Amino acid sequence: MKASPTLAANLQAVLTDLIELHLQGKQAHWNIVGPNFRDLHLQLDVLIDLARNLSDDVAERMRALEAVPDGRSVTVEKDTSLAAFPEGLISTHDAIDRIVAAINATVGTTRKVHDQVDEEDPTSADLLHTVLEGLEQQAWLIGAENMKP
After folding, report:
1. If DSSP codes are grouped into helix, strand and coil, which group holds residue 149?
2. How far apart are CA 135 and CA 7, in angstroms?
3. Any idea where the domains of the chain sit in the sequence?
């Protein structure tokens, strides 16, 4: 099967956000300070690995469909739906809120393209389910740090 331009663009949108999520996770990982530093530092490693692995899976699925993934920094910066992550040190509390927002933006992109992807290629839609499951779990695990009962 060869991906249509629409399928390729939809998978590219998810890929772009996953790459940016990985980068923002690293930025937070390196620059967080404050309460629960160690726990968040380690949890961010889990998110970073997940985003990196999922982006690889999406890119490889694109290649299997004869689409060409574009993970260049210029493309990611131009096309991501994630808000920019601030430079410099950031409190654990603020980093949690920003990272959860970035995860949710990536989830939003994935959900937005899901139905069109599913219509053309249910196998790629299954991959998007894996993306959603992993990211929604991370949003919960990381976000719980700032939740109040």
Report:
1. coil
2. 21
3. 5-146
pLDDT in tens, 90-143: 999 999 999 999 999 999 999 999 999 999 999 999 999 999 999 999 999 999
The residue type at 98: R
Does the pTM surpass 0.90? The reply is yes
Q: Classify each residue of 112-137 as buried b or exposed e, where b means 16 or more C-beta atoms within 10 Å of its C-beta.
A: ebbeebeeebeebbebbeebeebbee
The model's pLDDT over 15-53, given as tens digits with 9 standing for 90+, comes to 999 999 999 999 999 999 999 999 999 999 999 999 999
Q: What is the gyration radius of the CA atoms in the chain, in angstroms? A: 16
CATH class, domain 5-146, is mainly alpha
Torsion 107-109-113-115 (CA) sign? positive
For the CA atoms of 31, 37, 43, 49, the dihedral, rounded to the nearest 10 degrees, stands at: 30
CA dist 83 → 77, 86, 104, 105, 116 (Å): 10, 9, 11, 8, 25
For residues 80 and 33, give the distance between their C-alpha atoms in angstroms, rounded to a whole number. 26
